[in-house]
């Protein structure tokens, strides 16, 4: 049996269904992400697991216990929020030690545990600082240490890095993943940021309108989106109607379907260069209608017939003189055209 089981959980607010018989299972020691657009019900589900929202139907089982109707403090669930919610008048040491003190544990034991935990989150030397003396990223590390030290059965993290700038956020994502692996703690992380979910998760649950639209390892979700919603939400994909694509490649194959093609699988070359497409691919002609620099990636927007396709190439691999109105050839490998469920 899985470690955490959400079994057909329903939650309504004022008669509006926010969680619609949602079911999912998490294994012990996993870091999973609930990923979905604003308002899809991610935070509501976390709050149901934590006992901060009552459910209107279904069950929640954690570590072989039915916790559906237990008081929050009896569930073995910890939570880290976007706002750090530290005690401002306590030092880092006191903030982190707080949960163990409440349990009435001895000073020596607490000191050793706090030392290990502060070390784990990379804050050694800051024990005597107050929250106001720390950066946002450091404060969030304290919040993480404070929640982890009491060893909850599962730690819930609700968009914990949202308030941080992009660089710190990326660093903390990596660190969280390391900390989670070292500690073996089961974690559920909520985000609406696809890149964040792809970076940190063992598995992702994509949520749409209070249900799981798709679950899988990051690479599975990224390379094989199950539906048009997932393809569009995970971003980047070219999503086309079958008929549009048929006109593009001149073969009647995909009527009534919806297709997804990742921008980086399309090969782009100047007209006539690099030979022809072969049996395993389609070759089409187009014109560049947009060029976007995305750091190490250059994204070309290409119009061919009535279609617009985005094509990503490594920034060092093409002549950057390729510009608006340049005629180009695109080669699309057939096995990279994914048929989506509508
Ligand atoms: N206490 C509440 N009372 C009434 N409606 C609520 C309450 N909490 C959440 N909702 C509604 O439930 C829906 C889902 O909210 P939820 O916070 O779970 O979304 P989310 O997926 O976490 O979105 P975000 O990424 O914006 O936080 C929203 O329409 C929200 O307005």
TrEMBL record:
Annotated ranges, domain ABC transporter: 4-234
The keyword Disulfide bond appears for this protein: no
Origin: domain of life: Bacteria
One of the protein's GO biological processes: quaternary ammonium group transport
Pfam families found in the cross-reference section: ABC_tran
Keywords recorded for this protein, A-Z: ATP-binding, Nucleotide-binding, Transport
One Gene Ontology term of the molecular function aspect: ATP hydrolysis activity
Gene3D superfamilies, A to Z: 2.40.50.100, P-loop containing nucleotide triphosphate hydrolases
Protein name: Putative spermidine/putrescine transport system ATP-binding protein
Organism: Acetomicrobium thermoterrenum DSM 13490
Lineage: Bacteria, Thermotogati, Synergistota, Synergistia, Synergistales
């Amino acid at each position: 049996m899985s470690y955490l089981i959400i079994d057909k959980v329903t939650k309504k607010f004022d008669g509006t269904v926010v969680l619609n018989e949602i079911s999912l299972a998490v294994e012990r020691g996993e870091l999973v992400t609930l990923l979905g657009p604003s308002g899809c019900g991610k935070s509501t589900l976390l709050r149901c697991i934590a006992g901060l929202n009552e459910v209107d139907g279904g069950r929640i089982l954690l570590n072989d216990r039915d916790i559906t109707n237990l008081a929050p403090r009896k569930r073995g669930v910890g939570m880290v929020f976007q706002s750090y919610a530290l005690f401002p008048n306590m030092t880092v040491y006191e903030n982190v030690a707080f949960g163990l003190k409440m349990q009435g544990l001895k000073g020596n034991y607490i000191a050793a545990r706090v030392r290990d935990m502060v070390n784990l989150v990379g804050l050694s030397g800051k024990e005597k600082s107050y929250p106001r003396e720390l950066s946002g990223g450091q404060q969030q590390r304290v919040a993480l240490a404070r929640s982890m030290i009491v060893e909850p059965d599962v730690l819930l993290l609700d968009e914990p890095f949202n308030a941080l700038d992009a660089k710190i956020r990326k660093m903390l994502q990596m660190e969280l993943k390391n900390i989670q692996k070292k500690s073996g703690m089961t974690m559920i992380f909520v985000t609406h940021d696809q890149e964040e979910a792809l970076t940190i998760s063992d598995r992702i649950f994509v949520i749409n309108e209070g249900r799981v639209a798709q679950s899988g390892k990051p690479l599975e979700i990224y390379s094989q989106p199950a539906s048009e919603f997932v393809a569009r939400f995970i971003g980047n994909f070219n999503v086309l109607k079958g008929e549009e694509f048929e006109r593009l490649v001149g073969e009647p194959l995909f009527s009534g379907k919806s297709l997804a093609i990742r921008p980086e699988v399309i090969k782009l070359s100047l007209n006539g260069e690099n030979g022809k497409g072969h049996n395993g691919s389609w070759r089409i002609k187009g014109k560049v209608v947009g060029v976007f620099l995305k750091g190490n990636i250059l994204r070309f927007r290409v119009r061919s017939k009535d279609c617009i396709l985005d094509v990503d190439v490594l920034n060092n691999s093409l002549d950057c003189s390729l510009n608006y109105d340049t005629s180009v050839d695109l080669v699309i490998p057939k096995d990279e055209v994914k048929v989506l469920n509508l």
